[in-house]
Fold Heavy metal transport/detoxification protein.
Amino acid sequence: MSPINIIVVLAVVVLCGFAAYRVYGIAVGKKGCCSDEGTGITTCNTEQVTAADGPEDKDESHYPYVQTFEIGGMTCQNCVNHVTRALDSIEGTWAQVTLAGGQARILSKNPIDVDAYRAAVEKEGYRLLT
Protein backbone atom coordinates (compact mmCIF):
# COMPACT_ATOMS: atom_id res chain seq x y z
CA MET A 1 0.00 0.00 0.00
CA SER A 2 1.36 3.39 -0.96
CA PRO A 3 1.82 6.20 1.57
CA ILE A 4 -0.92 8.27 -0.13
CA ASN A 5 -3.43 5.42 0.27
CA ILE A 6 -2.50 5.05 3.94
CA ILE A 7 -3.06 8.79 4.53
CA VAL A 8 -6.43 8.69 2.76
CA VAL A 9 -7.56 5.64 4.77
CA LEU A 10 -6.48 7.28 8.04
CA ALA A 11 -8.32 10.49 7.14
CA VAL A 12 -11.50 8.56 6.37
CA VAL A 13 -11.23 6.62 9.64
CA VAL A 14 -10.78 9.85 11.63
CA LEU A 15 -13.75 11.51 9.92
CA CYS A 16 -15.93 8.47 10.57
CA GLY A 17 -14.88 8.58 14.23
CA PHE A 18 -15.94 12.23 14.53
CA ALA A 19 -19.25 11.48 12.80
CA ALA A 20 -19.96 8.55 15.13
CA TYR A 21 -19.13 10.70 18.17
CA ARG A 22 -21.55 13.42 16.96
CA VAL A 23 -24.36 10.92 16.29
CA TYR A 24 -23.86 9.39 19.74
CA GLY A 25 -23.95 12.83 21.39
CA ILE A 26 -27.21 13.71 19.65
CA ALA A 27 -28.75 10.35 20.56
CA VAL A 28 -28.04 10.76 24.28
CA GLY A 29 -29.02 14.43 24.37
CA LYS A 30 -25.54 15.94 24.82
CA LYS A 31 -25.52 17.76 21.48
CA GLY A 32 -28.23 19.71 19.72
CA CYS A 33 -29.09 22.03 16.88
CA CYS A 34 -26.93 24.97 17.86
CA SER A 35 -23.65 23.86 19.33
CA ASP A 36 -21.54 21.25 20.97
CA GLU A 37 -22.06 21.74 24.68
CA GLY A 38 -19.00 22.97 26.44
CA THR A 39 -17.18 24.20 23.32
CA GLY A 40 -18.87 27.58 23.02
CA ILE A 41 -19.19 27.04 19.25
CA THR A 42 -22.63 28.14 18.10
CA THR A 43 -23.98 27.37 14.65
CA CYS A 44 -27.71 27.90 15.15
CA ASN A 45 -29.48 28.44 11.86
CA THR A 46 -32.97 27.42 12.93
CA GLU A 47 -35.95 29.72 12.71
CA GLN A 48 -35.71 32.35 15.43
CA VAL A 49 -38.74 32.59 17.69
CA THR A 50 -39.48 34.99 20.50
CA ALA A 51 -40.03 33.93 24.07
CA ALA A 52 -43.46 32.49 24.77
CA ASP A 53 -45.75 34.54 26.99
CA GLY A 54 -47.33 31.42 28.43
CA PRO A 55 -51.01 31.01 29.18
CA GLU A 56 -53.28 33.82 30.30
CA ASP A 57 -53.99 31.94 33.56
CA LYS A 58 -50.78 32.18 35.59
CA ASP A 59 -52.21 31.03 38.90
CA GLU A 60 -50.29 27.85 39.71
CA SER A 61 -53.07 26.66 42.01
CA HIS A 62 -55.24 26.16 38.90
CA TYR A 63 -52.81 23.54 37.59
CA PRO A 64 -53.20 20.40 39.74
CA TYR A 65 -50.86 18.24 37.67
CA VAL A 66 -47.14 19.00 37.72
CA GLN A 67 -44.24 17.03 36.26
CA THR A 68 -40.66 17.83 35.32
CA PHE A 69 -39.06 16.40 32.20
CA GLU A 70 -35.50 16.47 30.94
CA ILE A 71 -35.25 17.87 27.42
CA GLY A 72 -32.38 16.81 25.16
CA GLY A 73 -30.84 18.97 22.46
CA MET A 74 -31.44 22.46 23.85
CA THR A 75 -28.33 24.59 23.60
CA CYS A 76 -29.52 28.21 23.43
CA GLN A 77 -32.40 30.52 24.33
CA ASN A 78 -33.92 29.99 20.89
CA CYS A 79 -34.14 26.25 21.67
CA VAL A 80 -35.87 27.05 24.96
CA ASN A 81 -38.36 29.28 23.12
CA HIS A 82 -39.15 26.51 20.59
CA VAL A 83 -39.72 23.91 23.32
CA THR A 84 -41.78 26.28 25.48
CA ARG A 85 -44.07 27.20 22.61
CA ALA A 86 -44.48 23.55 21.61
CA LEU A 87 -45.44 22.50 25.13
CA ASP A 88 -47.69 25.51 25.72
CA SER A 89 -49.60 24.60 22.53
CA ILE A 90 -51.11 21.62 24.37
CA GLU A 91 -54.43 22.71 25.87
CA GLY A 92 -54.37 23.41 29.59
CA THR A 93 -50.57 23.41 29.76
CA TRP A 94 -48.16 25.97 31.17
CA ALA A 95 -44.54 25.07 30.48
CA GLN A 96 -41.58 26.56 32.31
CA VAL A 97 -38.47 25.57 30.37
CA THR A 98 -34.91 26.30 31.48
CA LEU A 99 -31.69 25.93 29.56
CA ALA A 100 -29.68 25.36 32.74
CA GLY A 101 -30.25 21.70 33.45
CA GLY A 102 -32.27 21.27 30.26
CA GLN A 103 -35.57 20.82 32.04
CA ALA A 104 -39.21 21.55 31.39
CA ARG A 105 -41.58 21.92 34.33
CA ILE A 106 -45.07 21.16 33.07
CA LEU A 107 -48.10 22.51 34.90
CA SER A 108 -51.35 21.11 33.54
CA LYS A 109 -55.05 21.43 34.18
CA ASN A 110 -55.45 17.92 32.73
CA PRO A 111 -53.69 14.65 33.61
CA ILE A 112 -50.15 14.57 32.20
CA ASP A 113 -50.08 12.91 28.76
CA VAL A 114 -46.41 12.07 28.28
CA ASP A 115 -46.96 10.92 24.70
CA ALA A 116 -48.54 14.26 23.72
CA TYR A 117 -45.66 16.20 25.28
CA ARG A 118 -43.09 13.91 23.66
CA ALA A 119 -44.72 14.37 20.23
CA ALA A 120 -44.82 18.17 20.60
CA VAL A 121 -41.15 18.33 21.64
CA GLU A 122 -39.97 15.92 18.94
CA LYS A 123 -41.89 17.84 16.27
CA GLU A 124 -39.63 20.80 17.09
CA GLY A 125 -36.50 18.63 16.79
CA TYR A 126 -35.74 18.05 20.48
CA ARG A 127 -36.05 15.01 22.76
CA LEU A 128 -38.11 14.44 25.87
CA LEU A 129 -35.74 12.22 27.84
CA THR A 130 -37.67 11.49 31.04
Q: What stands out?
A: Confidence is low (pLDDT under 50) at residues 35-45. The first helix runs from residue 3 to 27. The domain at 60-129 is CATH 3.30.70.100 (Alpha-Beta Plaits). Residues 53 and 85 are 9 Å apart (CA to CA).
